[in-house]
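Friendly challenge for the regulars: who can give me the structure tokens for this chain first? No prize, just bragging rights.
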Amino acid sequence: MAYLWGIRDRHKRDSSFGEEIPPVLSVPNSGPELVLSEDEKSDTEDKEETELGVMEDQRSIILHLISQLKLGMDLTKVVLPTFILEKRSLLEMYADFMAHPDLLLAITAGATPEERVICFVEYYLTAFHEGRKGALAKKPYNPIIGETFHCSWEVPKDRVKPKRTASHSPAGHEHSVAEDPSTSYKLRFVAEQVSHHPPISCFYCECKEKRLCVNTHVWTKSKFMGMSVGVSMIGEGVLRLLEHGEEYVFTLPSAYARSILTIPWVELGGKVSISCAKTGYSATVIFHTKPFYGGKVHRVTAEVKHNPTNTIVCKAHGEWNGTLEFTYNSGETRVIDTTTLPVYPKKIRPLEKQGPMESRNLWQEVTRYLRLGDIDAATEQKRRLEEKQRVEERKRENLHTPWQPKYFIQEGDGWVYFNPLWKAH
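First reply, four minutes later:
Bragging rights claimed.
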């Protein structure tokens, strides 16, 4: 899952999205950096993970670690073995929520508030499966404070239609990228690690032409559950449709890594909510964990309700990484197979064009050694990064200087992008 394992391991124009402003120096706490979208290329990195399960020597290491843990123990500060790492940062994995940007952008094309909230629920339920390539549960890199990740998507305009009226794409995984800006929408994404203790990540994406944006902050809190690790996703996101003046507040499910001594696998669990105060529509989504005996895995159910009239307008059931069936109050039904939805590859700048705190650049040596299978060298590179973070944290404490994120500002209990679409002139 895109967010599995949350464990330790100002300008008038938007500078982070490459608008026409003077470049900003790339130094810590200097403020937003210039990111040129024309430098971005289609991502070709393979997200597949080797599914060998836990090797015998690795099992002994995990057993030793487990022997020192207690049930319910907070794992935030526990150092986990490097061989369980997935070769990407948690910040990049959040971008996988946007693997179907055509469905996200289609929400604002809904003709009525009812159609828009149903489109959002359809998008939400299809957003999780792309976070995992294969069934094996691995842990993404825990972002370093100040780490950022930037990318974008080009979405052909003829693919952005309300889901219930959209024509089907041919079955397949990779959708060709439209390069002509006159025939495509640009969806831009930035994520940043704004806090180390507690570990808080923020991400923001926007499409200016569709006047749509999403702002999310997530605090990952993990605990030991015997043969499982559970990760709670504390925080919320807000989808804003500026054309309609609507805000949809949503939460995220918990993630679990099961069977950590054999072949670890991922499941989602818990009840999440989606609500729009302006229209009175809300949705409840339940991710069902597998019963101890029997039962299916990856089950999800959902119900969309118009609260002023207490009317259920849509129900859904199925598997979040498989087939989902939607039933509308008109009696119409629709089946969405997440495995055949077109996937739009991210566009990302090559390493030589990235700043020192951008995820792929920051973690490139760890990634390189993991690909080579040199776990000791990967562990050493990871240790150096984390030790540097600790040294800098001690310096800030001695100077009584709080960390200042580049792209997000704390507002109450949440975090907001510094120049969001709803504040743009």
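The longest strand covers residues 212-224. The radius of gyration is 21 Å. Your move, everyone else.
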